Every structure is written in C-alpha cells, then in structure tokens.
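User: My collaborator and I are trying to settle a disagreement about how two of our proteins should look. Neither of us wants to argue from intuition anymore, so we agreed to look at predicted structures for both before our next call. Could you fold the first one, then the second, and keep them clearly separated?

Assistant: That sounds like a sensible way to settle it. I'll keep them separate. The first protein:
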Amino acid sequence: MLDGNGCLAITARTITDADPANRMCWYGPGRFTSARLNTRGIFSFTYGVVEARIKLPFGQGIWPAFWMLGANFGEVGWPECGEIDIMENIGREPGTVHGTAHGPGYSGGNGLGGVHALPEGQAMKDAFHIFAVEWQPGTIRWYLDNQLYCEVMQAQLPKGTPWPFDRPFFLLLNMAVGGDWPGSPDDTTVFPQVMLVDFVRVYQTTQHLE
C-alpha cells in the first residue's frame, strides 16, 4: 500500500491465533505478516544500473532487502540461477548495509561482497538512502548514496565456480521477520515496522535494452 507521501509501504505486523491473516506455517502458527514484491514473469533485464530510494525499518529480527534473482530460477534453482543482493540490512546493525553476490560455490554465508556503515551514531531508519548496483559484464559494483563501497569481478571467483550474471535477472523488494541471520524479534522490537520505497529505477545503455 502507499503512505501519505506516495511511497510504497511494506509493513510487518504481529498477528494472533484468532487473526484472519494468520496462516499455519510448516513450523506452526504464524506470528507476523509482511510482504514481498517481485517482477518475475513481468520484467527482467541484463546489465545496467539499478537503484532504489528507501527508508529502512529497524529493530531486532527485522530484515529488509532489495535484490535480484536470475530469471531461470524456476529451471535451475538457487544458487545456480545467481543472486545479487543490492541491499540487505539486519536490525542489530542499524547503520550498516550489505551488498552480496551469490552463485554456485559462493552462496549463503560464503557470498562475495562487502558492507558499508554510516558514520557512528547514524541509523538507516533516520532518513531515505539510495541503494544501487552497477552491473556490467564480469563486474558488479555496489553504491550507497552514490558512494562506491564494493566491487566483485568474475576473476575473483573461487577456482572452478561459474559466473551466472550474464543473463536476465528480475527484481525483488521485501521485509522478512526473523531468520537465521537476523535472529528473532525480542522484547525490544516494536511493531508495526514499515519499509518505505520512494522509487525503483533501472538504467541501461541502448546496446543492452531487451
């Protein structure tokens, strides 16, 4: 849904057993609702600059992300399809953004990328920031507010591993609650939490337009 300023608002809320929104998960009754948006089957592209202006949520167990998956995900699965995490943030690191590339042989906790931290005392929740990648053949670069903070090149891959980033990818925006990396919400976590998205943009040169 949209907030009063026209931004997309992805909202995480707590739910009760009696709430109509509650659905039984594989591990038992759900405790939270949130949302994920993706362009799979609607829009995919190869190479370009991808950016979004986002104001992040906060709190222990909160996990917002802006990311990409190979459009062949349904055929080959993950991590063979490749994944580019343009932005990930976890609640216990309120001032830090993670940018990561995942593929066969370098996925999950072994993904390739880097982190960037705001000056001490600042948090991502306090203002909108622009998260971006510049994606070219053989190279992916990550930016926060137009400042380059990480670069991964095909030549850096672990020996014998493939580079699955020369084919179409689609975009995803979501806010997860809990998980192995961020951990679960605790008594300090305030709900609802809102991830505000002002815009998402993709720029390509004419030679890469599909």
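The second protein, kept apart from the first:
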Amino acid sequence: MKVTEHLKRANGKTLFTIEILPPLKGENIKNLFDNMDPLMEFKPPFIDVTYHREEYVYRKKEAGLLEKISTRKRPGTVGICAAIQNHYKVDTVPHIICGGFSKEETENALIDLHFLGVDNVLVLQGDAIKTESKFIAEPDGHKYASELLDQVVKMNKGIYLDEELEHAAPTNYCIGVAGYPEKHFNAPNLKTDLKYLKLKVDMGAEYIVTQMFFDNKKYFDFVDKCREAGINVPIIPGIKPLTGKGQLTILPKIFHIDIPEELSEEAEKCKDLAAVKEVGIEWAIQQSKELIKAGVPTMHFYSMGKSDPIYRIAKELF
C-alpha cells in the first residue's frame, strides 16, 4: 500500500513510523530484526530503509603504489525491503539516491523493487563521498534529486531509458522527497529551497519527509511557508533523540541543523552517557507530544539502528 493511502486511512490519527539502516556488510539480518521486533508493538504501517552509495578505500601495493578499491559498507536495501515485507507484512519505503549510481543501475533497482511489490520510494540526492568536498554525480547518473524524481515519474508512465521498448509495463510508485525546515545546506536561503521543493511536488512528489530537527517551531514555520508557496502534500516530521554528548557537534556538522540552547545545556550537565540519553529521550517525548497535538500525519523516527530510545519514546505516545 502507498504511503499516501496509509495516511488517508488513518483519518487524522498520527501514525508511528521509523527509518532503519541496512546491516553492515557481513552482519546477520537477525541483528536487524532483533532491533526492530520491539518497535513492531506500535504497528508502523511503513518502514523506511536507507540506501548507501559506493565508497572507496586505498590499499598499499608493492613499490608504494596505491590501489583504489570500491566498497559498500551497507549493501542490500532491495533485499532488506523484501525481507521486512515478508517477515513483518509491513510496507517498506526504500531510499533511492543519485550518488554512486548510473541511470541504468537506478532503473534496474526500481524494476527489482516493483517486482517485489514495493509501492513507495523516497528520492534523494544522497551524500557526497567523504573524501570529496562536494557532491559529484556519476558520469551517467543524476546530479539532482529532481532529475531522479523525473526518472521515477517516467517509469510510472511506462517510459524507460530504452524508449524503443514496446508495451513497457508502468510502475506505480508513491514518491516521497526530503524537506529541510532549516533549509538545505546548498540553498542560499529557505525561499530558494522551497522553490525547488515545489518543483518536485509539481513534478509528482506526493509527500515530504523532513530532515531531523530539535525545535518544533522550525517545523511549524516550515509547514506554514510550504503552504504559502502552494505546497499542499503531507509533510511528515522526522525526529531523532539525542543519545550522546558527541552528537551536539556531530549532528550540526553532518546535517546542518541547530541544537536548541536548552537541550545542549542540559546534555552538557550530564555526567555519563545514560544521563544524556535520558535528556534526549525526554526532549523527544515533549517534542512528539506537541507535534501529535498539532495533528502531524505520522511521527517518523530516525532509529540509526538503535531501537531502545525509540521504544521508550513510542511507549509514552502510542
């Protein structure tokens, strides 16, 4: 079932959903299920599964030469989606990204997902390679999420890369895109960012999932500005509980977000990791209560592979 259909069926009730990471290469899928099992108590109607691009490492060879070797630390998004749907009978939303993939590789992944009965995708630009200062598209890949979105929209119309295909079967994906309450870091300002977000909605995006945020006012302001700009699709808030002091600097650096002063000050007072987790969980609970009261379509939690904080939060809410 499509994400938008789940939201309509909820009839105004806020749902519980999560985003998970595929297991690291070499790990057993049982580890993933062990983390997910407690969260199934809250009956998530769909689960997002992240996609990870190819990365590179350099290994020393004889005579001091370096060999460039490609690696993917978290492969298996397509397989994980199939496994979750089979194991839990829950819909999945695979992330489809520009970075590290050619248009043909993207098309093949979308074909596989379609054959598996996956009805949803979240299209994203994806991250730059860690050794590069900016995002660089593959020679035959997409540079922007809007280009990737266009490919999915065309496949929904039965238009494949080989335009000479006869009687090509259309896919039927419900397409989500990302939204940034504190603006995308590449955008000069929020107004410009919203212009491109509206372009994606006009092209066929049916819902928006936000980047994580810790200040609800930024989400509410973002929704208001989206509506003023003519963006009228559901906007799902993304929440991640703070779980360590290191995240006070890591999260703003990686995700280009602000940590509220009150939260950072409370976390800094903590004498150990357990105390920081308690502060983060309580903050997320209060955030979530306010968002649910405002009638958000679903509380979407970024689990980062850790179920305990999310379980604690959800137990208070659902």
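Some points you might bring to the call about the second protein. The longest strand covers residues 91-97. Residues 273-293 form the longest helix (21 residues).
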